[in-house]
Each structure stands twice: as C-alpha cells, then as structure tokens.
Amino acid sequence: MEWHRLSLWVALAASGLFLRATLSLHGYSGQNRPPMYGDYEAQRHWQEVTVNLPVTDWYRNTTDNDLLYWGLDYPPLTAYHSYLVGRWARWQGQDEFVALHTSRGIGTDGHKHFMRNTVLLLDAVLYLPAILLAIRLLHRPTAGSGWLTLALAALYPGQMLIDNGHFQYNNVSLALFALAVVTTVKGATLSGAVLFCLALNYKQMELYHALPFFFLLLRRSFDHGSEHWNIRRVVTGVRRLAVLGGTVLGTFAVLWLPWLGSLEDVRQLVHRIFPVARGVFEDKVANVWCVVNVFVKLKNFPNTMMAIVCLLCTVLAVLPCGLHLLLRKPSPGGFLYSLSVTALGFFLFSFQVHEKSILLAALPTILLLPVEPFAAYWFLQVATFSMLPLLHKDGLTGAYLGLSLITLALPRLSTSSSATVRWDVLHIRTLLDRWIGSLVALYYGSLLGQVALLVAFLFVPPPDALPFLYPLAISAYSCGHFVLFYLYFNYRQFYGHATVKRRTKKKVK
C-alpha cells in the first residue's frame, strides 16, 4: 500500500511539474511592454535592489532605489528570497541579470529560463510536497480512493497560471500556510505559529488567514482538558499564551532584525507593506467593491475613508466564524471552513484587493477537497475563471483553456460511464455523496455562463461606450458565485463540520 501511495504522489508531482514547465514557455506579465513591464520585472528588480544595496535601503527611496519603479512592497522574507535568487544569478556568472540600473527590462531567453526555473524549483521542493502532505495528514485519502482529490490539488490551474504563467512566487507563502495548517491541526501549536509567521512575512496578504489561527490558538491556550474555569486553568492558559506570543514576536524579531535599530526604518517598512494610496481595488477584481463601483464611483471618496469602510465590512464578514472557533470546542473541520470563509470575506470586502488574491481563498478550499469535493471543485473552477481578464492580458488564454479542460476531465476519468446519468457529461456526480440533480444542473448552468462570457470576451467587440464591459461582467459573475460560496462555507462551519471525520472515510469512486 505504501508503495502504491508513493507511486501516486510521484506521478502527480511529475504531472504537475510537467504542466508547469510547459506553461513556463508562454509569455509573462509585462513582456515587451515598457516602461514598467510587469510583475516579472518587479520580481527581477527586487533581486537587483537587494544584492546591490544595503539592507536598510531596500525599502527606502534613494538615488539607486526609485520606489516609483517597482519599489519593494512585500515583507522581509520576500526580500531575503529575492536576495538569494540574485546571489544565485551572480554565482552562475550572470551579473547582467541583476546589474544596478542597466538590467531594467531585461528579457533575454537566458534570463527567462533562469527566472522560470526558480519558480519550478520551489514548486518541486516546497509547494507540491506541502500540498500533497497536507491533504494526506489532514484527511488520509488512500491511493485507490484519493487520487482525484490529490490530482485536483496538485494540478489546480489558478496557482500554475499565476506563478508559472503571469509570474510570481505565491507558491512559497501558500506552501508555508499549508504546512502551518497541518502542524496546528496536529497539535504542534508553536511550530504552526512559526510557519504561519513565515508565510505572513513572505506576503502580507496572508493576513487573510490570520484570524482563524489567532482564535484557534487563543482557545487552545486555555483549553487543556478541564471544562470548568478555575485559577489553575487561567494561570496555565496565560503561561501558554505568553509562550505563544513570545514565539510569534521572536520570529518577527529575527526576520525584521536589520530594521529594528531605527524606528524610522520600521515605519518605512510598514508604510511600504500597507500602501493606502493605491485605492480600493486594482483593475476589475471579482469582489463587492468592484460591483458597487458600477453604481457608486468609489474613487470620489477619500482613500482613508474607504479604508475604514472596508475594514469595518471585513471585520463584520469574518468575525462570526472566528468567534465560533473561539467559543466552541475546536475541530479540524471547523478550522478549515473558517480559513476559507475568512479568506473569502477579506477578498470580497477588504481594501486594495488584487485579482490574484483569490488564490488565498483557493488554498484552504483545496484542503477542503476531501470533505467538500463538489463545492470545492466548483469554487476552484470559478476562482480560475475570475482571473481570465488578467490572464488574457498576459497571453495566457490558451493555457487557461488547456488547463481548465484537464481539470474538467478529471472527474470523468475517475469513474465509469455507468456511474452517472447520460447528461452529466463531466461525471460531476462522482463528487457528491448522493445524487442531487438540481445541484449538478446549477453547476452546468454556471459553467455555461462562463463559456458564454468567455466567447463574448474573446470574439464579440464591446460597445464603444463600454470598453470594459466583458471584464466587468466576468468580475461581477464571479463575485456572485463567491458571495454564495462564502455563505455556504459559513453554514458548513456552523452546522456541518461535525460530518467531516465521517466523510473523509468515504471513498471517491
């Protein structure tokens, strides 16, 4: 059995790396589009800055570090990673990749291969092992019954299209987050806290997941066997909480150490990580504010005011599920649902949301695949669709279609044609515990709507007065789905997560 499981993992990891390597042959964000190029150039420029300038100048505007040209705006762990990649380029004798000033906009084939390989390396040694290990330890699917879940997790198109296509390193923070979830669920509280701090210090958007960790670990600090409150329980809880807090502060202190000697350096770093001046959202993101903006132009309101409004709405959206974790006995199922709910709440209502931020809701939903195969599968498919305008801008429409077709084919490959009804051509039935025709019909209706919007976006010219009609329609359509999934996952956390343990034992045919 162990040999079959290992063979399955190797096959899925190899398939995932093959598709990622193939996708790496496509274009990337900002390719041949001066003067700013795109996210690809941003990542390269950070390597240039970190290997050439003193660490205290990484986040400062200087003569050698123009913050208006892709200034570093991610936390220290991203900066350290950029430094290591830049040093690797120099070690390979490719100083021109990170030469100060003169390397801007470099787009040679050699540099493209170098950059793409740095993402693939992290996929191979960190992201794919972390995702497969997380699903294995959280749900223990067998080689015979769990291959579909593992395949959907390893081959999720959204992460591949953004990291290996558009070009980013989301695989680092997402992998650290997945490992933090596993260690926390398994009771290794301090290890989980350290791993989550590492994820948060790689990308500040991991704040999307912070509240469930906070409430769960707070509950655990005071929950150690006794149901009755007494002095001993309080003292023990405070001691545990102090150790936990010290661990978190210690992790941050180590990572922020180069800037801790100056309050101004710390203030500048925080200012770069949390920019308020950029506005509520960028481009046509599939969240509530983008839809509201159609009727009420949010740019007419001060950014500081909108930041406060977004904060209040986000808190209202995510606080109930967090309090549920705090006030009820923690369970792995409730924690996983809370992570999806909180990430969706942040995506729908928070300030300064990017299209790519939906990956932060997608990752905890991937971890829910064994217990919510139908809802998670549907959500992940819509999440990838919501990024279509961004992917099209990068020349990744063909890659999006190809990877989506592979994902759509996986349920059909997992079951025989006799296991479902004739009109269920994708065999979505295999993702449900029992046949619920209305749900499957809703899924196909949703899919047909996506196809219609895709065809219109690609082939039907928009009216001259509405040049962004189709990106906005795609965002609004996806946002409607996300609101419904947010409500459903809330319901499952409050009323349905007790069935998680039972459902993980059920085989996917």
The number of helical segments is 21
Distance separating the two termini: 18 Å
Order of helices and strands: HHHHHHHHHHHHHHHHHHHHH
Largest sheet, if any?
none
The count of β-strands is 0
Shape: globular
Please, what is the average pLDDT?
Answer: 90
Which regions have little confidence, pLDDT < 50, spanning 5+ residues? 499-509
Q: What share of residues is helical? A: 55-70%
Radius of gyration: 23 Å
Beta strand %: under 5%
What class, by secondary structure content?
A: mainly alpha
SSE topology:
Elements lengths: L1 H22 L15 H14 L23 H16 L17 H31 L7 H8 L2 H11 L2 H16 L3 H12 L9 H13 L8 H26 L6 H11 L14 H8 L7 H25 L4 H18 L9 H9 L5 H14 L1 H6 L3 H17 L23 H23 L9 H28 L3 H5 L5
Q: Would you kindly provide a written description of the structure presented here, covering whatever features stand out?
A:
It is a single chain. With 509 residues, the protein is mostly helical. It is built from 21 helices and no strands. It is globular and about 65 Å long. The C terminus is likely disordered.
Give a concise summary.
The chain has helices at 2-23, 39-52, 76-91, 109-139, 147-154, 157-167, 170-185, 189-200, 210-222, 231-256, 263-273, 288-295, 303-327, 332-349, 359-367, 373-386, 388-393, 397-413, 437-459, 469-496, 500-504.
Fill in the keyword field for this structure.
mainly alpha; globular; 509 residues; disordered C terminus
